[in-house]
Description:
The protein has 287 residues and is mainly α. Helix content is 75%, strand content 1%.
Amino acid sequence: MQASTARQNLVTATLLAPSALWLFIFLVLPFVAIVVFSLGERAPEGGYQAAFTLAQYANLPARATAFWNTMILAPVGAFACLVVAYPVAYYLAMRASQRWRLVLLALIVIPFWTSLLMRTYAWMYILGGRGIPALLSLVGIEDVRLINTPGAVLLGIVYGYLPLMILPIYVSLERLDKRLLEASSDLGATPLSTFVGVTLRLSLPGVTTGFSLVMILLLGEYLIPTLLGGGKVFFIGNALVDLFLQSRNWPFGSAIAVTLVLVSVAVLAIAGRVSNRLAGSRQVDLI
């Protein structure tokens, strides 16, 4: 019995070894390097100079604007995606026929076939002076500014990340046992009570999965604030690009990157705790 268990453990370890080695080389080691850089100093010519100091972390308030913009616009953008995505996912899972469901899902996924850069450039034209503002000026509404504003950034976020919010919620709703809805109705619950007490509650794992996924990606977002914010709406990703590629302050940039990773881990931990508390131990996977 012990020999069989040892053999199974050896087979499991052999199968996991390639992926574990991959993660160690391309995830753990780079993060360790960033932590080491964050404890160093900026060299006179730029880059990294060996040292052991927490001065870079003490200097984090110098980039407070980027942090505040990210901490405000990232959750607001994720919540906006949720508000738009839930009705869409609900219709796909609960109302759409099987024939049309696959077509609608394909239409949701198709935007991923095009580069986010190209899609964001399209929004730059739509929100720019030759787009919606030009149409508004034809009806007498002048001096409307849409581009280079937080609203433009939020719109780009919702457009770019909406499919990532829809799919986990759809999977959660699609797996929901419809007999629970019938039982709730038979027991005299109103449609609203059934939705809140059964549908919404049992789909919370999908909600938290989608919200966490979008939120974490937004914490490091760079492209959308750069193009639709016009350099006036800075995210942490913009600060990292500036520190590593322009001012070449690698230790300070590494300290910000480590802080960003810690915030992402905190988001995952909070989302997992909330999901387990409100909806039990149900898990939602995309596969």
